[in-house]
Design brief:
homodimer; alpha+beta; 5 strands; 159 residues
Chain lengths: 159, 159
């Protein structure tokens, strides 16, 4: 393990503790590093901001993208105090950093009352078998028409 | 299909088109309904806001939670112009609405250049087999210590 990795991961763990102590949300922290410098930080703020998406990783990704003026995190490493939940992992894939380093595991999170496993279990299921009732393919052709126009849009920005 | 479902889903599809026409991001829209009224709206703003998490569903969830002052969407239905990506589906599970109604499928999204499928394929893999290089369980005990303190914290707010 690279000593820089340990240094940055300790910073993420410190953010987790500080956010918990300030009652901002769950005990999770994240920093994102580019060229040896932290470009964005986040700690969980779900309960204090009434935002279920305000996980440490999502907030760190948003802050980092604002800092560098890009919706992509090429060349970056994301350090997080705990294995990312499926939402955060999805956000990471859209942001496309080069590397992830995490400390605690999803099993540790579950033992602390954070049930990421339910979401990991639900995602691969067909929509009709999930716990949240889902109606699929309603007005599908009307939505497909929008995609068709997107594909023929000359000035579209792809992401 | 309930005619109200069609009405709200058409509103989500209209948001998808409007956001695309304003060059705010991809052609995706979402509305969230509680007690027969729309409480939050979202359309994709990834490219215009440099925020890879600014998907329609995430923005609609954030707006709705702000509107009702809660980090939970009990009793709500989420209408989205396209099957949610894994990030958005994760966000939906954290927000816990009662129901999801969507129009276009992930296959339609892929045909329009939005590769949710890669993320669906990556999530179930062990961390070391994913395309984004991941180092797991680094400094795990230090992070576990924070979870331990969380569990013994008298005034913690669970979510």
């Amino acid at each position: 393990m690279d000593t820089n990795d340990e240094r940055f991961l300790r910073e993420a763990i410190a953010l987790a503790r500080e956010g918990m102590d300030r009652n901002e949300g769950g005990p999770f922290g994240c920093v994102i590093v580019k060229d040896g410098e932290i470009i964005g930080r986040g700690n969980n703020k779900v309960t204090s901001s009434n935002d279920p998406t305000a996980h440490a990783e999502v907030l760190a990704i948003r802050a980092s993208c604002q800092a560098i003026g890009s919706f992509q995190l090429d060349g970056c490493t994301l350090y997080t105090s705990c294995e990312p939940c499926p939402m955060c992992l999805g956000a990471i894939y859209w942001a496309r950093p080069d590397r992830i380093v995490f400390a605690a595991t999803r099993a540790d999170a579950a033992a602390a009352g954070f049930d990421d496993q339910l979401i990991y279990d639900e995602l691969p299921l067909p929509a009709e078998q999930r716990r949240i009732a889902t109606e699929a393919n309603v007005l599908r052709q009307e939505a497909q028409a929008v995609f068709k126009d997107w594909m023929s849009k000359a000035d579209r920005t792809v992401y």
